[in-house]
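Supplementary Note 3. Input sequence used for the single-chain structure prediction.
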Amino acid sequence: SLQKIRRALDTLEGIGETRHLSEYRLVAQGRNSIVLLHETSDGAVDLVERPGQQVAVIKLGDVLQAFPLAAGEIEVPPLGQPRKRISVNPAIRSGYPVIQGTRIAYDLVASLVRDGVPPRELKDYYPGVSAAAARDAASFADYVDQATNRRTS
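The predicted structure, written as discrete structure tokens, is reproduced below.
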């Protein structure tokens, strides 16, 4: 709202920020505030809800990276690309994991490999699926099964 923008501008002036507005990166935070992102660090300053208070900034790219579950357990793969030839894109099949460069679901390819179709022969069924992509699909399916079984045990 205009009132929030005015409050944000007043706070900017109050904390000694007097450069031209085009030099700042202001971002709406939720429905109630506006924050000033620092160009040189990962921090930000709230300008409306809690004027002057530091705000933690979490980048979506960092959240999507691989991470370990616990000591000695398997690692959760990067969520955007869980295997080299498997990709996850919200614009393709609503974010369901697919063979990279195609719309072919990873689990469809993995089920063919598990049913005994050699990975090198999958090109006969799906020309866009290489043997390496078929192996990645089977590997990811094994990971998903392992993670699912661990969670239900």
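The first strand starts at residue 25 and ends at 29. The chain has a mean pLDDT of 87.
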